[in-house]
Amino acid sequence: MIITRTPFRISFFGGGTDYPAWYREHGGAVLSTTIDKYCYVSCRSLPPFFEHKHRLVYSEIENVTDISEIKHPSVKATLNWANITEGVELHHDGDLPARSGLGSSSSFTVGLINALNGWQGRLSTKEGLAKNAIHIERNLIGESVGSQDQIAAAYGGFNKIEFFKNDSFAVSPVIVEPSRLCYFQSHLMLFFTGFSRTANEIAKSKIENFSSSTNELRSIRQMVDQGMEILNDNNFEILEFGHLLHKGWIQKKRLSEKVSSDKIDEMYDAALNAGAIGGKILGAGGGGFMLLFAPPEMHLKITERLKNLVKVNFKFEDSGSKIVLYQPNGL
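^ thats the sequence. predicted structure below, dont judge the formating
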């Protein structure tokens, strides 16, 4: 049996510039970090004693005799990509809900690739995990996805990820003085809005608007470097990062009318009125998790103002996708 653990991510700036429709012409970059919330994928050989050949357990249970019968798009595509011929049983569990803006779909795909590689005796590299996950999601499944989620999940850590016109990428760890990084983390809050959304549809809407969103996307890309400058230069008050997040959220909403909603705007405004400086809906938008930036002394008031939402405590992590259990031959 193989069990992999793959982190979810929070993206601060640059989202949208990681889509090939943009970076193949302009280049792109994001500033993001993985957090200590994970998805777990277990993989083992399924003994040939059942009517079915493959068993999948996630929010649903699938017992099938052939990969072509699988409903889960990522599992179906990844098993075909990996040329799986013998029976396999897969289980998926996540610390946080799916379709919530934390890159959970890509974390699952990365974790599944890592598990299947380990199960078949192959070593996974971080670069290989990221590239293969991008290929599966974009080319085999046909989803309108960017490239940041797969890379973040594979590599882990707080990084600047650059996307080049030739489809290559570079991952540069963000080096921040430990005390300042701790102080920075102490300003972050994460709330679940209470509703999920399908990122693929929102992404399609944003991509369709790219030609008319050039100024917004250029500004969003510049915020990656501005955010790093704030973190790395002690002459900047850390609160400036929060103000920049607010500016980024305003720009992000201009990419598509589907990014926000009256309900989301109401939640965000309530947080600002209670002391938050900035924030954003994570991922494509439309729902899921809301990241807020606020002085620590204002957190209690903000939590009370948003008491109908689920608050999630988290820390940064730097492990990326990894095998946490390996038992050969099912022992």
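The mean pLDDT is 92.
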